[in-house]
């Protein structure tokens, strides 16, 4: 990654404003990019963009390659003549400040099926040709994913390792019969993927044109109930019934006496090593199509991961197992180039081998300011202990908001140390952390939008371990005030985080208006 000072904002697209219950790649998304450009931000960081299921977590996706149909802009489908505006005019009334995922599921997905049913008669020849080309170019993952989703629909959402054995084991005759029986559903899922890619890549190009790079998130593990596991069972620890024999988690620590039992299937690294990590190469290549920079979540798992026997109720009875280490990254570098645009999420229980692996390939790690005040001046998360090759955050999607942290989550020692460290009375705690991140020597500073808006814990994106109520926060347009833009711009320029400064020229703020959105761009 480039050795320059820059800054950005963490905001998942579902949190964008919009008329139909969830943030999408519509006009509001283009106006958001305009705001980033106006305030001289260089980065927009997202959570994973894959399709989500029960619980709505972007970290438990049905595919590492597919996109979330919830993010499709229905307004753009109207512009293409594939949907009537009258249908949107009859939409239910959705909340503005949060996502009601249940309501989206029951309204938007059937609407997209309706679009698929009418595509043959409503699409122009050019659109039909573009869709066919997309299907051909992406067949390596798209065919299996669309069939997987169609079969989940047919099984009322049951996970694939509970299907009848011929489908579970992917017997050719069973797959061929399913493709014929569920042709309409398969077409629907393929069409949704074309809409997603078409719209997202157009939005990404718009951001790139304004000097803004996209930071995307790649979880190290995949969901058990995913097209990835169904189509590549030999690369995971599964028994002859396709049930996991061991699963992922993290051991007991200061935060949890029983650890965290994630339940993801674990990779058979010996099998992957034998085929030169072909699945991982495809995965990273696909991620670099969607994003400019990839943050790998739980990077420490490449050095060593916590393996828990399947069937355990907690993560206590696990063991550390060596990961692929440098061997994987040598192959990735051979296949994708020497300068890997990868961020290593190096949080949690970090051992010397994790740091050695990160530094061997020059990958930037992460610093979280909310973590900095629990000990003393030697704490590695305090800015005076940083070196340049890091990304510093005020907090992440898994933390409380910074104002919520100061008001409620932090203990008395942390609050006192925070006030003494920054020489503040704490009345503007979120912005104190933001400016602390921006003035640090770390090359990159990224803050969640909730912190810029000085919101409390009610705007938290995720509380690990909470069964419901996560991932639903949205902002409303009137929150992006002129005062906020001025304050963010001032901090960006004051602490030298506009890369144009170092190029010897200014970057035009705003650039083309979001009104010039076309919503096109062939994949």
What do these coordinates show?
The protein is 40% helix and 11% strand. The chain contains 20 helices and 12 strands. The chain is of the alpha/beta class. The relative contact order is 0.15. The strands form 2 sheets. It has an 8-stranded parallel sheet with strand order 9-6-3-2-1-12-11-10. A 4-stranded antiparallel sheet has the order 5-4-7-8, with no helix packed on it. The C terminus is likely disordered.
Quick rundown:
By secondary structure, the protein is of the alpha/beta class. It contains 20 helices and twelve strands. The strands form two sheets. The chain has an eight-stranded parallel β-sheet with strand order 9-6-3-2-1-12-11-10.
Keywords:
single chain, 523 residues, alpha/beta, 8-stranded parallel beta sheet, 4-stranded antiparallel beta sheet, 20 helices, disordered C terminus
Structural class: alpha/beta
Secondary structure: helix percent:
40-55%
How would you state the average pLDDT, rounded?
Answer: 94
Low-confidence segments, ≥5 residues, pLDDT <50?
506-523
Biggest β-sheet description: 8 strands, parallel
N- to C-terminal distance:
26 Å
Q: Spatial order of the strands in the main sheet?
A: 9-6-3-2-1-12-11-10
Total helix count?
Answer: 20
List the helices and strands and how they pair.
Layout: E1 6-10, H1 27-38, E2 43-45, H2 74-79, H3 85-89, H4 101-122, H5 125-137, H6 139-154, H7 165-168, H8 172-181, H9 183-209, E3 213-219, H10 227-231, E4 246-250, E5 260-265, H11 269-274, H12 278-290, E6 293-297, E7 304-309, E8 319-322, H13 326-336, E9 342-344, H14 352-360, E10 365-368, E11 390-393, H15 402-409, H16 412-422, H17 429-439, E12 444-448, H18 449-452, H19 482-494, H20 499-502
Parallel strand pairs: 1-2, 1-12, 2-3, 3-6, 6-9, 10-11, 11-12
Antiparallel strand pairs: 4-5, 4-7, 7-8
């Amino acid at each position: 990654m480039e050795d320059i000072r820059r800054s950005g904002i963490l905001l998942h697209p579902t949190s964008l404003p919009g008329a139909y219950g969830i943030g999408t790649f519509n006009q509001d998304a283009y106006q958001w990019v305009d705001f980033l450009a106006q305030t001289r931000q260089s980065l927009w960081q997202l959570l994973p963009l894959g399709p989500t299921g029960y619980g709505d977590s972007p970290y438990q996706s049905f595919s590492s390659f597919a996109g979330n149909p919830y993010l499709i802009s229905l307004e753009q489908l109207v512009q293409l003549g594939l949907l009537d505006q009258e249908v949107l005019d009859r939409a239910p009334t959705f909340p503005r400040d949060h996502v009601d995922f249940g309501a989206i599921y029951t309204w938007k997905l059937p609407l997209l099926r309706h679009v698929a049913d009418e595509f043959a008669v409503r699409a122009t020849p050019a659109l039909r040709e573009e869709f066919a080309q997309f299907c051909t170019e992406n067949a390596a993952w798209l065919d299996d994913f669309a069939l997987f989703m169609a079969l989940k629909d047919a099984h009322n959402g049951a996970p694939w390792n509970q299907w009848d054995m011929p489908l579970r084991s992917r017997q050719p005759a069973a797959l061929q019969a399913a493709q014929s029986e569920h042709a309409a559903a398969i077409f629907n899922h393929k069409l949704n993927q074309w809409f997603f890619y078409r719209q997202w890549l157009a939005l990404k190009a718009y951001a790139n044109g304004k000097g803004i790079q996209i930071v995307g998130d790649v979880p190290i593990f995949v969901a058990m109930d995913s097209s990835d596991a169904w189509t590549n069972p030999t690369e995971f620890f599964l028994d002859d019934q396709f049930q996991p024999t061991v699963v992922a988690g993290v051991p007991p620590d200061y935060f949890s006496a029983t650890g965290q039992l994630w339940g993801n299937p674990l990779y058979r690294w010996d099998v992957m090593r034998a085929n030169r990590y072909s699945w991982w190469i495809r995965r990273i290549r696909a991620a670099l199509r969607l994003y400019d920079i990839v943050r790998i979540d739980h990077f420490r798992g490449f050095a060593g991961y916590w393996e828990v026997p399947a069937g355990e109720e907690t993560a206590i009875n696990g063991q550390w197992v060596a990961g692929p280490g440098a061997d994987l990254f040598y192959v990735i570098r051979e296949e994708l180039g020497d300068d890997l645009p990868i961020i290593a999420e190096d949080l949690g229980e970090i051992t010397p081998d994790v740091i050695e692996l990160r530094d061997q390939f020059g990958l930037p790690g992460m610093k979280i300011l909310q973590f900095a005040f629990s000990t003393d001046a030697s704490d590695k998360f305090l800015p005076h202990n940083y070196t340049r090759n890091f990304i510093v955050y005020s907090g992440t999607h898994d933390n409380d908001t910074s104002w919520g942290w100061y008001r409620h989550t932090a203990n008395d020692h942390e609050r006192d140390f925070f006030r003494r460290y920054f020489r503040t009375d704490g009345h503007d705690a979120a912005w104190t952390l933001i400016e602390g991140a921006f003035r640090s020597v770390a090359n990159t500073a990224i803050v969640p939008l909730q912190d810029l808006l000085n919101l409390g814990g009610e705007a938290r994106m995720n509380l690990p371990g909470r069964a419901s109520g996560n991932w639903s926060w949205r902002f409303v347009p009137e929150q992006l005030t002129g005062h906020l833009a001025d304050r963010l711009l001032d901090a960006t320029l004051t602490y030298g985080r506009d890369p144009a400064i170092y190029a010897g020229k200014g970057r035009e703020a705003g650039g083309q208006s979001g009104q010039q959105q076309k919503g096109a761009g062939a994949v």
